[in-house]
Amino acid sequence: MIDRLVSPQHHDDDGGLDTSLRPRWLTEYIGQDRIKENLRILVEAAKARDEALDHVLLYGPPGLGKTTLANIIATEMGVNIKITSGPAIVIPGDLASTLTSLQKGDILFVDEVHRLSRLVEEALYPAMEDFAWDMVLGKGMAAKSIRLHLQHFTIIGATTRYAMLSAPLRDRFGATYRLDFYDEASMYQIVRRSARILGVSIDEDGLWQIARRGRGTPRVANRLLKRVRDFAQVKANGVVTKSVAADALALLEVDELGLDEIDRKVLLSIVRKFGGGPVGLETIAASVGEESDTIMDVYEPYLLQLGFIQRTPRGRAATRLAYAHLGEPYPEGAEQRQNLLF
Ligand code: ADE
After folding, report:
1. Which of 102, 240, 329, 331 could form an SS bridge with 202, CB 3.0 to 4.6 Å?
2. How far is the CA of 335 from the centre of ligand 1 (A)?
3. Is 72 helix (H, G, I), strand (E, B) or coil?
4. 202 alpha carbon to ligand 1 midpoint, in Å?
5. Mean pLDDT, the chain, integer
6. Which of ligand 1's atoms lies nearest the C-alpha of 28?
7. What is the pTM assigned to this prediction?
8. What is the DSSP string of 120-165?
9. Where in the sequence is the domain holding 328, given as residue range(s)?
10. Per residue in 73-110, pLDDT tens?
């Protein structure tokens, strides 16, 4: 995949940026108010009972703060957190030493939890439910299973694909929260906070420019802020104003809604090559040269949120709004045709 500036996926060069900008406590975390309120209650109740937190599942598009929230929960609970991911755990044995080393209340964060193998997932069931780990010793006829006792710990699972989790796994999470794209006011606050931490001189209008083009995703906005700061340093006197931000973002080919070249390619492909759709995800992916999983996880959620595409049983269709944004004439009768095809 091309390394997009507006990609909500993690970039290698985000490292330093991410950690210094990441809020550490719930009070510093902007937006997602309902989730914060629920988490406050969950944490306070568990602490008052001196118990481990229930297992928590966080889902939603990438870059919205699932990992940040998991770290915040650990800080608020005053416990250790270990971080792993679905694809990193190949066989159940990979988990055994981690699980047995967890102390009471500790958190195991499993990113991309939908990518756990069936075998690993099944080994996790007794761990999550009974805090027991069944270890198989030996092979074949001589194999014996012994049950190890685990401390009461908490799994925080994160996924961009709720629908890909099996029902038994979903059911084992006591609390499930869906993260949504941030509204403009929250994005503004986030960019303002990041600018302050990074020491960027930026005026109100400059902040709004970045907030509006950050596609409702803090990780994207923080990255844009960094690039705009570079531009201001080189091309202006280091101060980010509305026009400096707009010029910088135009040069980076990020439009007023935060769409980049690949978003536009996806939309234009539906509109120009497939008559506005509906067209299958695989076909779109092949036409723009991206993985269909990437389109589904990374590009599509924001385009859906903007109301630029619709998901239909027959595939994806571009809406009137998408045509307007692209400046393409809307073919009369397209809506009826799409509706007839659903
Ligand atoms: N940085 C990234 N996400 C954030 C959030 N939700 N609140 C504050 N700062 C952030």
Report:
1. 240
2. 39
3. helix
4. 18
5. 94
6. 8
7. 0.92
8. HHHHHHHHHHHSEEEEEES-GGG-EEEEEE----EEEEEES-GGGS
9. 261-339
10. 999 999 999 999 999 999 999 999 999 999 999 999 99
